[in-house]
Amino acid sequence: MEKLIITACLTGAEVTREQQPNLPLTTDEIAEAAYQCYLAGASMVHVHARDKDGNPTQDYAVYKEIKEKTAAKCNIIFQPSTGGATYHTPEQRMQPIELKPEMATLSMGTCNFGDDVFMNTEVNIQIFAKRMYELGVKPELECFEKGMVDTVIRMTKKGILKGPHHFDFVLGVPGAMGGELRDLMYMVDSIPAGSTWTVAGVGRYQLPLNIAAIMLGGHARTGFEDNVYYSKGELATSNAQLVERLARISKEMGREVATPDEARVILGLK
Q1: Is 1 a member of any domain?
Q2: How many domains does the chain have?
Q3: Mean pLDDT of residues grouped by 10 in the chain (270 residues)?
Q4: What is the DSSP letter of 258?
Q5: What is the CATH number of the domain that holds 46?
Q6: Is the pTM of this model over 0.90?
C-alpha cells in the first residue's frame, strides 16, 4: 500500500475566529500553520487566503505572499483553492492558478452549500482546466457527489481532462453527498482505474473518513476548513494537532506517512 498523503486544509472560506480562536488568517499565520503541519506529517497544504480584515479573498498577491512564505519554511506541496467563497466570480477564483503551483483544486460541479449555491458550470470547469494544463498545474478534482465523478469521466473522454486523475471527495457538506462509509465506498468504486484519491470529511465525518482512507489505501485531508474540533465539544488547538493525530493513527495501523517528495511521486508531480 502506498504511503499516506496527509493534506492540511488550514483556513477555508467559511470558518471564523468566533468559531475557532486558533484559526490562521494572516499570511504569516497561514505560512506558519503550514510549516507546523509539515512538521506534524502533512505533505500538502490546501490554502484559502484571507484579506487584512479576515475575509475570504482570491487575490493573486495575497496567495503569492503565502506561497513564498511557506516555501521559505519547508517544501510542502502548496495547493491553492480555486473554489474561493461562493460569492467570488470565476475570474477571481482563477487568480491563484497564475502562480503556477504544483496542484490546485478544480471543483467538478454545482451543488447546494448550506444556504448558498456553489456554482461551477461546465463552461467554467473547462476554462479552469484549460488554464491549469497550460501552466503545468495538476488539478485535484473536487467531487461533492457522484454526478461530479461522472462529469470527470465524460470530460476525460472528450479530452478536456487528462488522466491519471487525483480526486478529492468532499463529503458531509449540507446540500451535497453525506459522509457515511457507504458514501465514500460508492465514490471510490466509481472512479477510473489508476486514479488516486483523498477524502475530506466535514465536521463529525472528518476522523472516521480519514481512518477509512488509511485502511482503503486512499489519502486524507484534515484541518480547520473541514472541522474545528479535536473531539466532541473540544476545539482543536491547531491544524497541526489534527495532522499529528492522523499521522500517529496511520503509523500505528502499519501505514507510513509520505514526505512531500514521496507525495509528489505518488501524485505524478515529479
Answers
A1: no
A2: 1
A3: 97 97 98 98 98 97 98 98 96 98 98 94 98 98 98 98 98 97 98 98 98 98 98 97 98 98 96
A4: P
A5: 3.20.20.70
A6: yes
